[in-house]
Amino acid sequence: MASTADRTSARRPGGRTARVRAQILAATVELVARDGIAGFRYEEVAELAGVHKTSVYRNWPDREELVVEALLQYVDDLGAVADTGELRRDLVDFLMTIAESLGKPTVRALELATQATHDSPAVRRAATRILEGRAAAMRRRVDLAIDRGELPPVDYSLLGEMISGPVHLIVNRGLRPFTRADAERIVDVVLAGIRATTPHT
């Protein structure tokens, strides 16, 4: 039975229990990114996190729950679309966030999770919800731009794909760093194309 001190620690924000949980979640993301959903083991999670494996089993008896929580814990790595009032700047910042996130285990783990149709449907559903959340953020920002007259009516998903596609291509090839100048050129070309090809009413 857990002692009073253990239960107090579990409730104390920033206490030892919180640190252990953070270590386990970080290790889970790293291992899923390396080995996939089916490949990671609790023993490896514990070893990488520097904790006893009972700490993993006790907090997450279900491996799918562990992976889901680990992905949700690091969802900020995926980036969001800010609203500074300047669409070009917001989209450029968004592309820089994407470029930085592509080197993190979270994104690789998320990609593998969305492909885990047979191994872990619960994890795949969670990963899909995360990606849909980012798409919703893009939609809100594009809708604001349209309302403010910054953009003509446009499909937000198409806009997102057009600006983010080149980032993935450049970063994944690894031939050169992705720079802010790259992000600015991509955004300028896409926005100019949208404005030039949208019929005026």
Automatic annotation (TrEMBL):
Stretches assigned to the HTH tetR-type domain: 18-78
InterPro entries xrefs: Homeodomain-like_sf, HTH-type_TetR-like_transc_reg, HTH_TetR, Tet_transcr_reg_TetR-rel_C_sf, TetR_C
A Pfam family this chain is assigned to: TetR_C_11
Keyword RNA-binding: no
Organism: Pseudonocardia adelaidensis
Keyword annotations of the record: DNA-binding, Transcription, Transcription regulation
Gene3D superfamilies: Homeodomain-like (1.10.10.60), Tetracycline Repressor, domain 2 (1.10.357.10)
Protein name from the UniProt record: TetR/AcrR family transcriptional regulator
Annotated PANTHER family: HTH-TYPE TRANSCRIPTIONAL REGULATOR RUTR (PTHR30055), TETR-FAMILY TRANSCRIPTIONAL REGULATOR (PTHR30055:SF148)
SUPFAM superfamilies (UniProt xref): Homeodomain-like, Tetracyclin repressor-like, C-terminal domain
DNA-binding residues: 41-60
